[in-house]
Design goal:
heterodimer; A: alpha/beta; Rossmann fold; B: about 950 residues; alpha+beta; Beta-Lactamase; five-stranded antiparallel beta sheet; 35 strands; elongated
């Protein structure tokens, strides 16, 4: 799909590190901004300080969780068209269905190995 | 509480008969009185009295004189008339007689003085027409709550029946009078005491005296002095012998001249044949007698006189051959002149010869005249046999020597006179038989001395003195009534001419020699003669003795009740009056009360047993006493004295209203049983049951808690444990990558083992999560086509099937009520197993079939008979399992194969079992290591709630 400007929202710093390492392996031209708090990311988006082409979103986060963030994005004119890909530990069918209904573009269950992650992200970035 | 209050307000309507129900169901919402709950107590009380009275009563209430009446009054309104009139205004109901009723009500309401009428004719519309109705009634003021007159209370009896009987008697007598009054013949009646009781108009016309003047021998002085003693002798002699009399005498008429009268007095008899006096008829025969006298004076003139005489005359010679015969005689004889004149008398009257030949011969022989008065005679007149009545005289005509030379036959036909009198007698007879047959007692006593002139069978039966009472004095017949007021009452009625009525009066009569008390309603009514003077008293009545006997029977049954109470095997008592005085109670009752009889008997119950106060019994007793409704209660805890201490005992009891003969409530009959032992036993059982229930509830809630904890654990295990596991996998891989070529073979193998372990743990966690989610309740059941489930599974295993070269066949599978996701998990697990557990170099062959279970099969598996079940069978050619473990394989984490041999977590079949159970079905397995495995999944078509 060739997204080069990516936003990642995940409170888990390990996962942020893994995600960024995987992106590094795939492409050197891709730019990714990682946020630990969804609320902060939303603020920046509304202020127009950041204009990502795609957003990777964790669900299970403190203060504002992934579902709330998704809801806000889809409510906001100008942001609603940015594709949001859920990036979560969960593989529960109910959770997947719910986020799709909220307007998620795709749902990725965090894989158990590094190679798996690279294989998943590759078609999205390239 | 509200319901109770309402009920109380309507108590005056309870058991108020048809009219009570009518008042209850009447729509009062539009009435000026409003609904009954708003009625003033005075109205409720008055209505209570009226509705529960067996005597006809009526009430006009309020400004509009709203009408109320009771069941006893209801029949007086007849059919299709004023009924139903309840709730209507007085003027609407009684519109046709308001002219009479209206002013009377107004008078009572203004003055407060009651009004009483007896046998008053007030005709009104009922039974489809205007009827003449007689009433005895009283209108009295009805007071409202403000102590002002707010209505008129009417009690009444319809006396139409009585009045009609009296009227019928009077009419019959009137008929007789009319007949007697319209004839020229002087008619009089006398009673069995020889006193004249009646003279007709002919008499008063003749004598110029009034009937009153003629009574008491007021006619005797008019009889010619020469004839008087003779006639009185005949009359009184006949009276003594009670025989018919005949007389001929002169009597002074109002013109002052003496006229010859021929008089007959046939005996008057009552229906049963007893002598009742005379009914006499007298005819003026002066002209005839004068004519006869003249012939005697001058035989010369005889023929001429005879011929012109208006009386039939025939003069016979000594050989009884007719010498002279006049026209009157010919007319009476009804035979032609030629057949009489010059003929032997007995040839002419052959039909009369057997009766009168001797008499005629005797006249010739002895020279004494022969009189025949009003004799019935059969004569052949104008060729026909006729019965006629004649009065005739064979009168001897003597020569100078006193020898009978001739006989004059004087004949007067009385047929018409006699038949008309017979008609009168007949009519009187009819009246008598009417009265005689009357089912109620009637007696007529004449004169101030009260001589019994008439008494019907009914009254004679009551008197019990036989049938020989007519003509006797009332005081002779019933001497035992002396000092019982009756004689005084009779005399008073005779003296004042005012009727006397009395109700349920006890009288002691001697019947068959024994004195008994009888009860009567009786009336003494004066009888007036034509001049308006009282001549006697009519006595009518009703014997109420049997009614009173019935009352006594009730008293007897009351006595029986008392015995029953004393001997009853349960506690019983009667509480009398509004104070609930203990009138009688048996030993069981005293035992129940916990006090000796002397403490309580004949005292108000709450006085004798103060311990029972204020436990609610007062209200219950009051309620039953006022409403009459039986109250039944079970296991009522009651505080009563037991061995000097107050204990709670439990009783079953019944309160029943004690009714008097007239329906009023005079007390309460109470029956009770001590059920304390039973109640305590029951309470003990209830305690045990409730303890058990509580324990069960606790066990249940602890089970729920542990279930919830388990679910929580499963969630943590599946979700939170995944996180670090994933990172172990990922970072170990990243580490391997960053080490790059520096890794030796041994290190690579270790990295691979870390990866494998992480993957395996991940699978385990996911399966545990799925397993724990099977019984979550938010999944809903819907119709699931199992064929589609199989199709989807095949699509999921597409790659594996292709790799293993597996073949999968499924025949027609049913549509079931199920949770779609769980069906997918079930089929996925079983098909996945069949693809997984296969010997090397062998291609999996999987067959899925479905068959409906028969009723017997369902029974054998203890399944519900309400719905159909399918056995869905999965058959494979895989490694199978030892039948020994057929049950074990469905336990979680139970593996039959080494991990390195076949992959798997050991959760799949446990989950299948859980899904099957969750669908009210089951799963079992059979199979050997040689022939592969067979799984039977039993599932219902419908979920039974």
């Amino acid at each position: 799909m060739g997204y080069l400007n990516i936003m990642l929202i995940d409170d888990d710093e390990d996962d942020q590190e893994i995600f960024l390492a995987a992106l590094d392996q795939i492409s050197t031209s891709v730019h990714c901004t990682a946020f630990s708090a969804a609320r902060e990311a939303l603020k920046k988006l509304i202020a127009g300080e950041i204009n990502p082409e795609v957003i990777f979103l964790d669900l299970n986060m403190p203060v504002m969780n992934g579902q709330q963030f998704l809801l806000e994005i889809k409510k906001t004119e100008g942001l609603r068209n940015i594709p949001v890909i859920i990036f979560s530990t969960s593989s529960h069918a109910g959770t997947i269905e719910l986020t799709k209904e909220l307007g998620a573009y795709d749902f990725i269950t965090k894989p158990n190995n590094f190679e798996g992650l690279i294989n998943i992200l590759k078609p999205i970035i390239d | 509480m509200k319901a109770d209050t309402e009920k109380n307000q309507y108590i005056f309507l309870e058991d108020g008969g048809e009219m009570g129900e009518m008042i209850k169901s009447y729509d009062w919402s539009t009435s000026v009185l409003g609904t009954p709950d708003k009625w003033p107590p005075s109205l409720c009380t008055t209505l209570g009295i009226i509705l529960h009275s067996a005597f006809p009563m009526f009430l006009f209430w309020g400004k509009d004189l709203i009408c109320f009446y009771n069941d006893a009054f209801r029949p007086s309104l007849g059919i299709d008339g004023k009924h139903p009139g309840i709730g209507k205004k007085g003027i609407e109901v009684w519109d046709d007689i308001w002219e009479f009723v209206g002013p009377m009500i107004k008078g009572v309401m203004e003055t407060g003085k009651p009004v009483y009428f007896e046998d008053q004719l007030i005709g009104f519309y009922r039974n489809g027409k205007k009827e003449d109705i007689y009433w005895t009634f009283s209108y009295s003021p009805a007071y409202g709550d403000n102590n002002k007159i707010n209505g008129v209370f009417v009690t009444c009896t319809e006396t139409t029946g009585k009045i009609q009987t009296i009227k019928a008697l009077g009419e019959s007598e009137q008929r007789f009078r009319t007949m007697a009054e319209s004839t020229d013949v002087l008619i009089a009646t006398s009673d069995e005491t020889s006193n004249a009781t009646y003279f007709n108009k002919a008499w008063t016309d003749f004598t110029g005296r009034s009937v009153n003047e003629l009574l008491d021998f007021g006619w005797a002085d008019l009889v010619h002095e020469e004839d008087r003693q003779n006639f009185l002798d005949i009359y009184l002699d006949a009276f003594k012998k009670q025989q018919t009399w005949t007389g001929q005498f002169r009597m002074l008429n109002k013109a002052g001249e003496y006229r010859w009268l021929i008089a007959n007095g046939p005996v008057r008899k009552t229906v049963d044949g007893t002598f009742a006096g005379y009914i006499s008829s007298s005819t003026d025969i002066t002209d005839q007698v004068n004519a006869l006298k003249k012939t005697e004076d001058s035989e010369q003139d005889l023929r001429g006189l005879v011929l012109q005489a208006p009386i039939g005359i025939c003069v016979l010679n000594a050989d009884l051959v007719s010498e002279i015969v006049n026209d009157s005689f010919i007319e009476i004889a009804g035979k032609p002149y030629e057949q009489i004149a010059g003929k032997y008398y007995w040839d002419t009257f052959a039909e009369a010869r057997p009766y009168y030949e001797d008499a005629l011969n005797k006249v010739i022989k002895e020279g004494i005249p022969y009189y025949a008065n009003e004799v019935e005679l059969m004569l052949i007149r104008h060729g026909r046999e006729e019965n006629i009545y004649v009065t005739f005289v064979y009168s001897p005509l003597k020569d100078a020597e006193g020898k009978v030379k001739k006989v004059a036959v004087w004949v007067l036909e009385n047929t018409q006179q006699v038949t008309s009198r017979q008609k009168v007698e007949q009519s009187e007879l009819e009246i008598r038989s009417l009265v005689e047959a009357a089912p109620f007692p009637i007696g007529v006593y004449k004169g101030r001395e009260m001589r019994v002139a008439f008494a019907n069978k009914s009254i004679m039966d009551i008197w019990g003195k036989g049938n020989d009472v007519i003509g006797k004095l009332f005081s002779e017949v019933l001497p035992e009534l002396d000092n019982q007021e009756v004689f005084k009452q009779l005399d008073e009625v005779y003296r004042t001419g005012i009727a006397f009525h009395i109700k349920n009066q006890p009288l002691d009569l001697i019947v068959d020699g024994k004195s008994h008390t009888y009860y009567f309603n009786y009336s003494l009514t004066p009888l007036f003669d034509a001049a308006g003077k009282v001549y006697g008293v009519m006595n009518t009545g009703v014997d109420l003795t049997e009614l009173n006997l019935a009352k006594r029977k009730i008293e007897e049954s009351e006595k029986n009740l008392r015995n029953t109470i004393l001997q009853a095997p349960v506690a019983m008592c009667i509480l009398r009056g509004p104070q609930f005085v203990v009138e009688i109670a048996n030993e069981f009752m005293f035992e129940l009360w916990g006090r000796p009889g002397n403490d309580i008997l004949h005292k108000p119950i709450f006085e004798g047993l103060p311990e029972a106060k204020e436990q609610g019994f007062e209200t219950l007793l009051e309620e039953v006493y006022t409403s009459g409704k039986t109250f039944i209660a079970e296991a009522v805890p009651t505080k009563l004295p037991r061995k000097g201490k107050i204990e709670t005992i439990y009783i079953n009891f019944v309160y029943e209203a004690y009714h008097e003969a007239d329906g009023t409530i005079s007390g309460i009959l109470a029956v009770a049983t001590d059920v304390t032992a039973q109640v305590l036993a029951r309470q003990k059982i209830e305690e045990i049951v409730s303890e058990r229930t509580r324990e069960l509830a606790e066990a249940n809630s602890s089970l729920q808690r542990s279930n919830a904890e388990l679910a929580q654990f499963a969630y943590i295990a599946s979700h939170d444990l995944q996180e670090p596991l994933r990172k172990i996998g990922t970072f170990s891989q990243m580490l391997e990558k960053s080490l790059g070529d520096n890794l030796n073979e041994q290190s690579k193998k270790y990295f691979s083992k870390i990866q494998l372990s992480a993957n395996r743990m991940n699978s385990l966690i996911r399966d545990v999560l799925t397993y724990s989610e099977v019984t979550k309740e938010n999944d809903h059941f819907e119709n699931v086509d199992l064929n589609k489930i199989v199709d989807n599974i095949i699509a999921d295993y597409d790659l594996l099937i292709e790799q293993t070269g597996a073949s999968l066949k499924s025949s027609d599978l049913p549509v079931l009520e199920a949770i779609p996701l769980q069906m997918s998990q079930l089929f996925g697990n079983l098909i996945g197993n069949a693809l997984k557990f296969i010997r090397k170099d062998e291609k999996p062959v999987i067959t899925i079939t479905a068959s409906r279970l028969s009723a017997e099969e369902k029974k054998g598996l203890s399944l519900s008979q309400v719905t159909d079940f399918y056995n869905i069978q999965f058959k494979d050619n895989g490694v199978g399992f030892n039948p020994e473990y057929a049950d074990k394989i469905f336990h979680i984490f139970q593996r039959l194969h080494r991990k390195s041999e076949f992959e798997g977590t050991g959760i799949g079949l446990a989950m299948c079992k859980k899904i099957a159970l969750n669908h009210q079905g089951d799963i079992n397995a059979s199979g050997s290591s040689e022939n592969g495995a067979v799984f039977n999944v039993i599932l219902p078509v419908k979920q039974v709630k």
